[in-house]
Each structure stands twice: as C-alpha cells, then as structure tokens.
C-alpha cells in the first residue's frame, strides 16, 4: 500500500510539473501583458515598472523556472519562502488565492454536500422503486435539472426566489383559492410518487393535501415568516421523527433499544434547550461546535446504556439523533435573531440577497452576521445543488440496480434477512463504489471555481480570478489557480482509489 501511494505521488508530481510548464508557456504567448498601458499618458513610467515586476524581459521558459523556484518554497513550512509571484497590479498571488479560495469554498461546499447526499438518496430510492410513479418523478426531476443552463437557472432564482419572494414578505398572505390550489397540487404529487394499492395511494394524496394546507395555514396565521420559531414543541416533534427514521435505516424498528436511545437523546436535548440559551449570548462558532459534540456524545452514551444485542446500532442511532437535535437548537437560536436582521437599516425587509457574499456596512453579533451569510449563500447553494444532483442520482440509481441483481443479494434474501438489512448492509455500500471517482473529480473541479455561478452572483472566487487573469494575460494568477486545482484534483483521485478498498473488500490496492 505504501509503495503504491509513493508511486502515485511521484507520478502526480511529474504530471503536475509537465502540465504547469505547458500552461505557463501558453499563457505567456497568448497575448501582451502590457496591452492596457499602450496609449496611457504615463506609459513611459508604467511599462518599465510592470516589465520589472513581472520579469517580462526574461524569456518565458526561464521565467517559468523562476516561478517554479518560488512555488517550491511553499513546500517548506513556516519558512516564509512561498512566493507565486505578483499580478499585473502588483498584488501578491498568494493573497489573491487565499481570498479567492475562501470565497469558492464558502460558495460550493454546502451545495456540493447537499448535491451528493440528496442525489445519492434520490438515486437509491428510485432504484428500489423501479418503474413506479416515484421513479418516473425522480427521473423527470433529475433530467430537468441536468438540462437547465446554469446561467438561466441562476437568473431565474434571482427573479423568483429573491425579488418576488422579498416582495411577498412585505405582505405574506394568500387567498383561499390559491391555498387550496397549492394543496391540491401537493396532494397530487404525493399520490403520483406513492406506491402500493390504489387505496393506499389515495390516502397518501389526501394526507399530502391536508399536511400542505395545514403547514401553509399555520405559517400565514402565526406570521411565522416575519417571526420564525421552533421552540420546544417543534424541536420535540422533529427530533422524534429523526429518531424513528434513524432507527428504521440503521437498526430496524424491531430493535427497540436503539429507538429508546434516540428518544432519550431527544429528551436530553429538550432539557438542555433553556440552559444553552445563556451560552449562546455572546457565543460563536466554538459554542456551536461544542453543543454538537456534546449532543453526539450524549446520543452515543445513551446507545451504549440502552444496550441490546447490538450496542453499536444503538450508539449510531443515538449519535445521529443527537447531531440533528443540536442542529435544531442552533437553528432555533438563529430564528430568534431573524426579526432584528430583517428590520435592520441595511436589509429593509428584503433579506434574500441576489449578489455578493455579505451586505456592505452591516454589523452585528455572530447570529446577525451568520444570517447575513446564509441569505447570501442561499441562492448560489440552491443553484449548484440542482445542477449537480442529477449526475449523482443517475449514477447511484444505475449502480444500485446492478447491485440488487447480484448473487450475494439474492443469497442474503434467501437466508431470510430483512429488506432493510439487505439494502443498507449489503447493497448500499457496494453501490457507492462507482460514485467515489465521480465525487473525487467533482470536488477537484469545484475548487477551481463555479465560473458561471460566481459571475451571476458576483462572487470573486477561483473561477473569476482565473478568467480575469487569462483575459489580462496575467500568468502568475493563472498558474496559482492551476497549481491549487491540479493538486486538489490529484489528491482526491488518489483518495478515490484508496476508498475503493474500504468500500468493497473484494477490491484491494496492491503494490
């Protein structure tokens, strides 16, 4: 294994060196870095200064090795020898990269995670209900998302989910006719995606109508959009649903002790609800992380105390439940600051942002700034998630269908194992193997920047830095973006190869 990793790393370094040499030469000969100075009244002073700063009086080949020497200095930790050159404007490329990477990571991280989780979930569910109404509905949704141009979807989200929704927030009300129409459509969707006998599907459609009508009526009647809340009742209800769902997926409802562990974790979270409110005053990110860790430990501890024939299952159910209960408590605290944020002078009742990563001039505590960051990331995250989940859904569906037809799955069923055990323990893990490569490629590509999404939502990330540098014939920032993206892509491809052997014992990386 070690020799294999070393060989892969040596090969990756050689590939990166060769590719960086070609990219540098192509950028250097693609245009004139001095083009914007011709005709400038101060050209006689500005041109020599830029030639000296960018070392333009040296041939491109020699310039590349000068750049490479500075880049190799980044391998020495704490030596302050890292230098990727300067841009045309005289800014350090390392500073440009640090800011651009922060913007890109902030922009794509949540969207990518949601796309992976939601896409794989939809694909697995679609495979398990092949040729059902749910399968056709998911297939239509994923192909629709896959076909949408990213620039059109981003502009549509800005118009509907930001501008029109902000207008709706000024006077959040619906007529009875509109409320009934929305509920009927929701009930019809529930009917189409449900499965089983016709009576069961009709009952699911009626349930969808009633639930949708009740939720919308509750939101409008309580003015929930202006003063959102969860409180003890909604946290308790949602926590119980999480505990039951986690038990069904991880242990099965026959394992009552696992269910008791999840429910006990919910009770502990409700008990801690009021004490942690005092900790939230003046708290920050560390306070939130501490709460999440504590609730996970409480859940794991509750699982081991509950015991049963498999303490590991109970501990996992309790840990997952504790994680989500902590998130619900944190979400409730953010909701408490929502009215102050919306009514501030910089927001003026229009919270959903359409551009930039934060509101200029807005100041406040951790909760206000967190809400501001959330409202600015909401639309880009939705855009990236919708565009990316289609491929994950289709790959996971095809992989799951192939796995469910394997001999060992039929053997597991013949042995009398429950369908949950067959799917979650035997099929799901192996179905993830083809996705490991896809996830690795996507993460490496996303670090390079979501160029169109960054442009529409005015994020100055890696994609925008790369495009602007190419247009300006500015080789040093181009090489900085290429270096970061190349390293990340190669590292994640190596990780994908190693993950193969973890996901499937039949696959082993040999030296």
What do the pLDDT scores average to? 87
Q: How many runs of DSSP E, i.e. beta strands?
A: 0
End-to-end separation: 6 Å
Low-confidence parts: none
Backbone CA Rg:
27 Å
Overall geometry: globular
| Percent in strands | under 5%
Detailed description of the structure:
By secondary structure, the chain is mostly helical. It is 75% helix and 0% strand.
Entry summary:
With 511 residues, the protein is mainly alpha-helical.
Topology:
Layout: H1 2-28, H2 43-54, H3 60-72, H4 93-128, H5 133-147, H6 150-170, H7 176-193, H8 198-221, H9 231-250, H10 256-280, H11 285-306, H12 311-336, H13 338-342, H14 366-404, H15 407-414, H16 419-431, H17 433-447, H18 451-456, H19 462-471, H20 475-503
List keywords for this structure.
20 helices; 511 residues; mainly alpha
